[in-house]
Amino acid sequence: MRSNQPGGRGDIRNATINRDLTTVLAVLGAAVEWGACEANPARDYNRRFTRERRESIHPPSSADVKAVITRCPGLFARMIRFLAQTGCWQEDAGRRRSPA
């Protein structure tokens, strides 16, 4: 079992806790609706204590993008140029299909 308590592995992130709380909230909400219980105690949990901390995204400079493009072969250079101009993620660019 994972735990953020002393002696635990400490690998549970706030995002995981929030996802689990959302699931518990939904299940208990359904139980209240079906009459299986009277209240949903998950609603009382203060999520302020499990805010997700995200690192800022720092896109590469235009000079860095140009430097990479000059070192890449044709198709990769085109893909990098496309990503830089559109802001798409690499996975999205790889799935892009040409019009039929």
From TrEMBL:
Q: Molecular function terms in GO for this entry?
A: DNA binding
Query: Which keywords describe this protein according to UniProt?
Result: Plasmid
What species was this sequence derived from? Azospirillum baldaniorum
Name of the protein: Uncharacterized protein
